Amino acid sequence: MLFGIAYRMLGSVADAEDILQDAWLRWNDVDDPVDNPRAYLARTVTNLSINRLRSAAVQRESYVGPWLPEPLVSSPDAADGLESSESVSMAVLVVLESLSPLERAVFVLKEAFGFSYSEIGEAVDRTEAAVRQVGHRARTHVQERRPRYPASDEERRRVTERFVAAATGGDINAMMTLLAPEVTTWTDGGGKVRAALRPIHGADKIARWLVAVLSKEEELSMRFARVNGQLGVVLGLGGSVDSVVAFDLEDGKISAIWLVRNPEKLRGLHWADQI
Fold first, then answer.
1. Pairing mode, if any, of strands 179-188 and 230-237?
2. CA-based, 20 to 30 A from 51: which of 13, 122, 128, 172?
3. CATH number 3.10.450.50 given to 153-273
4. Cα 44 to Cα 35: distance, rounded to the nearest angstrom
5. pTM of this structure
6. CA–CA separation, 179 and 183 (whole Å)
7. pLDDT tens, 20-68?
8. d(CA 66, CA 190)
9. Angle, nearest 10°, between helix axes 13-28 and 37-61?
10. Per CATH, the architecture of 2-62+98-145 is what?
C-alpha cells in the first residue's frame, strides 16, 4: 500500500522506494506506541511524497521532451497486485501529473485506497470539508481526461498483436487501420536517447513515424507485457530493454501511445526477464 501511494504520487519507482526508506527511518525513531500504524505510515508517506513533488517541480519544468511516468512492467498474464489497478494505468498517471501535489494526494488516498475524507484531512493537515472539496475537484479533473470506456484484455491483446505485426512488417496501411484519427504519441527520452521532443498528433504522421522507427532496426525485438496493469509492449535491442510502450484504446482504435525510452526509467528492467 505504501509503495502504491508513493508511486502514484511520484510516477517513479526509484523515488517511491526512497520515500519508503525515509518513512521506515521515521517509523523506527518513534518511541511511543502508535494507535493506527496504517494511518500513521500512510500520512508519513503522503507528506514525504508531497515534499518530493514540490522539489521536483523545477526539474520537470526543465526536462527535455515530454515527461512520462516510470513504467511498471510485469508478465502479460499477470492479473493481480499493484499493477492491475486501473488507478495506476499510464493514462491516469499522466493526468495526475497535471494536478497539484495536494490534489494528487487526496485523489490517490481516496480513489485508490479508500481512505475517508476525515482520515485524509488528518494526513494532509486540512479540514474534512476542505479535503472533500479538493477531492471533488481532482476527481472531476481526472474523469474528464481518463478513457471513458476502458478496453477489455481481449480487445487490447487483439489490437496490440496487430500493432506489433504492422510495426515489425513496416506496413503503414495496417498501422493506419489501428489508429484513431486524433491519436497522440508521447515519447520520453529524457534528452539521453533519440525521441520526439514534442507530442506527435494525427494517425498519418504517427503511423509513418512508428513504422520508420520500429521497422528500420533489424535487431529490434518486441514482446508483450503488462505495462501499468494493461497489455503493452517491451522493445529490446542488443539484449537490453530499449523502450516500453503503453496504449489507450477507444472504440477499438489506439487513441494514445506512450513510449518510454529514457534509460534511467528502464534500468530496473532486464530483457532476459521479458520472456
1. unpaired
2. 128
3. yes
4. 15
5. 0.90
6. 6
7. 999 999 999 988 888 899 999 999 999 999 999 988 876 777 889 999 9
8. 8
9. 140
10. Up-down Bundle (1.20)
